Amino acid sequence: MKTFICLLSFVCIGLQTAIAQDCGKIIISNAAKSDPAFIVSLNGVRLSNDYTQSVTFRFVDENTYRVKVLQAGSSSPLSFTVSSEARYVSAYLLVKENTGRYSLLLQSKSLMLNDNEPEPAVSTPAAVVATPTRAIASPTKAPEPVYQAPVAIGEAAFRRKYDEVKSKSFDDDKIERLKEAFEYDNLKTDQVVELMKLFSFDDKRLETAKFCYKKTVDKENFYKTYDQFSFPSYKTQMKDWVSKNK
Q1: Mean pLDDT for each consecutive 10-residue tract of the chain (246 residues)?
Q2: Phi, psi for 27 (deg, rounded to 5)
Q3: Alpha-carbon distances, residue 127 vs 33, 48, 93, 123, 179 (angstroms)
């Protein structure tokens, strides 16, 4: 019996070693410990239902994973895609941008030497002392987080939604459909101008411009919308509103 148990132990150790050699590891951590703790699922699989500041998925054997991050106090999960590489540790940071949105950025990728290597200590609970210098060692300098500028909706998709708004008979119905159709899209100033032209009166044009302003990727050109107002008073209202909402 003892012989059998010993043999089984050696087989398990050997299997675990083989898995570690052929698989990678993904670590996801908060960039700032002031950010809310989270629960992470990788391709629908959770390690725990406890909220934490950092989570490690070991023995990942696929190239690409769908990530769902549910933060404490939020009912809407964040969705990302991450990649792994066999025998490498891929460390990702959950970073809050200036706009309030969150991005999941690759912090470092390093060769997996053994299963006891240090976890990145970028943001752990206050009871644990952690400094960024103790993060996973990498043979190359970890890439700096890169801000990616928002991209406007493509012309084909814009035209389809534009036609949906245009099909409505009354301005009230048009403005309601416009806000529904473009709720999650960014726009160019020229596209905003086209949308404003769908309305007969300045009050709806003003409402359209205000709705689109924060979604406009080239705000330096937003002055073009001022020429769409028939009355100077509305143009002045728009200018004042933009100056207060920059």
Answers
A1: 50 47 85 90 88 89 88 87 87 87 87 59 40 48 63 93 95 95 95 96 96 94 95 96 92
A2: -120, 130
A3: 11, 20, 20, 11, 46
Q: β-strands 38-42, 78-83: how paired? A: unpaired
On whether both 105 and 161 belong to a single domain, the answer is no
- For residue 86, what are the contacts with CB-CB under 8 A and spacing of at least 6? 21, 22, 23, 24, 61
User: In this structure, which amino acid lies at residue 36?
Assistant: P
Residue 223 belongs to some domain of the structure = yes
- Runs of H (alpha helix) within 73-214: 155-166, 171-181, 189-196, 202-213
Q: How many Cα atoms are found within 13 Å in the side-chain-facing hemisphere of 227?
A: 8
Q: What is the CATH number of the domain that holds 123?
A: 2.60.40.10
| pTM greater than the 0.90 cutoff | no
Q: Are residues 130 and 170 in the same domain?
A: no
Dist CA 213 CA 194 (whole Å): 14
Main-chain dihedrals φ then ψ at residue 226, nearest 5 degrees: -60, -30
